[in-house]
Amino acid sequence: MKFALIGPPQSGKSTLFDAVSGQRLDPTHAPGERIASVAVPDPRLDYLAEIYKPKKYTPAHLEFIDLPGVSLADAHGQAEFRKAMATVRKCDGIVMVVRAFESDSVAAYRNRVNAKADIDELHTELIFADLEQVMNRIEKLEKSVLKPTKTRDAEIRELAMMKRVREALEKEAPVSTAIHNDEERGIATSFGFLTLKPVLVVVNVGESQVAADAPFQHEHARATIAMSAEIEAEIARLEDADRTAFLADLGLKEAAKLRLIRTCYDAVGLCSFLTCGEDEVRAWTIFRNMEAVEAAGKIHSDIQRGFIKAEVVAFDDLKANKDMRGAKAANKVRLEPKHYIVLDGDIINFRFNV
Ligand SMILES: Nc1nc2c(ncn2[C@@H]2O[C@H](COP(=O)(O)OP(=O)(O)OP(=O)(O)O)[C@@H](O)[C@H]2O)c(=O)[nH]1
Ligand SMILES: [Mg+2]
After folding, report:
1. Is residue 311 within 8 Å of 351, Cβ to Cβ?
2. Is the overall model pTM greater than 0.85, yes or no?
3. Domains in the chain: ranges and CATH
4. Which residue from 106, 227, 260 has its CB within 8 A of the most atoms of ligand 1, so it is best to mutate?
5. Residue (of 219, 25, 207, 13) closest to 96 by Cα position
6. Of 59, 125, 220, 353, which cross-links 306 as Cys (Cβ 3.0–4.6 Å)?
7. What's the rounded Cα separation, in Å, for the pair 225 and 221?
C-alpha cells in the first residue's frame, strides 16, 4: 500500500517523510522522489513474539513517497505538478501536507499561511488533472467506437461513463460520484483517477499547537490530523528512553507517526491478520471484508487454491487465555470456511492441500 505526500512548496513534506521513515534528507540530494517502506507498529505482534521467540519478526509495511513541492502559481509549476501525478496515480492514497506553522525563516507559499486554501487549491488541481485525462480518453474512444471491432460494445459503455465522469469533474465533484457499478469502478481504478483515492490531510502546525486537535476537518479529506513535522522528525531521532520524556513534556501521548499510520490504514479500509509460529510471527495487510480464501492468497497462491479451512482465533481471545494452548483449551479456536470474513487481529493458520 502506497501513500504519496503532496503539498505546496516548503509545507514540510520531506520533514514529515523523515519523521515517518527515520531517514534524514541529505541536503546534497537532488530534489526528486524519495520512497520509504515503514513498519506498522503492532503491539499484538510484539506479544506473539514474546511467546514464540520466532526466528523472524515481520510487521506489516506501508510505503510513503515524498514528492517535491511545486508552486501552482505559474504554468511551469502546474506542468510539473501534472508530471508528478503519474506517480500519485499508482498510489493507494494521498497525504496532503499543508503548512499552518509560522516561521520567519521559511518563505510562505503565496505569501500567506492558509492551510484550508492550500487544500482547496490542491483539490482543484487534482480535479483538473483527472479532467485532462478523461478528455483525452473521450477523444480516443469517440474515434474507436466508429470502427466495428470486437471491443466496440465495451467501448460504447466506457464512453458513456467517461462523459458522465467529465460532467461530474466539470462541476468539481470527484470521480467517485459518477461511478455506478463494479465494471465502472474497475475502469476508473485502472486509470488511477486521483479524485477516486482517499485523501488524508496533515496540518503541519507550530510547536505550541502540537497537543491540540486538528484546527478543522476538511470536506475533501477522509481525515484531517495535526502535527508538527519538525518536532516529529526530532522525536524520530531520539532514543526510546528519551522519547517518552520528550513526548510527555509536549503533552503528547505518542508520536504522531503512529497516528498517521493508523489514519492511513483506516482511510483505505485496511486491517491486519496475523500468523505465528517458531519460524515467524507476521502481520499481513488486507482490505476489510476480505474472505478467508482471498486472505490465504496473500500468503501464497497454493494456499488459496488448496484452501480447506482457516483455523482462527481472535488475538484478544488468545491473549485472555495466555497462549494458543490456552485458547484451544477454552474453545476459542474456530474452524472457518472459505467465505469467512477475516477480522482485524485474527490469528490464522490455513489448512490447505495441493
Ligand atoms: N517552524 C517549523 N518549520 C518547519 C516545520 N516543518 C518544516 N519546517 C521547515 O520548513 C522548511 C521546509 O521543510 P521541508 O520539509 O523541506 O518542506 P517540503 O514540503 O518538503 O519542501 P519542498 O520539497 O521544497 O516542497 C524547512 O526549513 C523545515 O525545517 C515545522 O513544523 N515548524
Ligand atoms: Mg521536500
Report:
1. yes
2. yes
3. 289-352 (3.10.20.30)
4. 106
5. 13
6. 353
7. 10
Measured in Å, residue 107 CA sits from the centre of ligand 1 at 10
Helices and strands in the chain, H and E counts: 13, 12
Task: List phi, psi (to 5°) of 336.
Answer: -115, 150
Q: Calculate the average pLDDT of the chain.
A: 93
Tell which atom from ligand 1 comes closest to the C-alpha of 31. 23
- Pairing outcome for strands 280-287 and 307-314: unpaired
Q: Whose CA is nearest to atom 30 of ligand 1?
A: 230
Distance 51 CA to ligand 2 centre (A): 42
User: Does the beta carbon of 71 lie inside 6 Å of ligand 1?
Assistant: no
Ligand at minimal distance from the CA of 118 is 1
> Burial of 147 by CB count in 10 Å (0-12 exposed, 13-18 middle, 19+ buried)?
exposed
Mean predicted confidence (pLDDT) in 166-180: 94
**Which atom of ligand 1 is found nearest the CA of 66?**
20
Give the confidence band of 213 by pLDDT, cuts at 50, 70, 90.
Answer: confident
CB atoms within 10 A of CB 354: 10
Q: Whose CA is nearest to atom 14 of ligand 1?
A: 12
What would the mean pLDDT of 272-285 be, rounded to a whole number? 97
Distance CA 43, CA 31 (A): 36
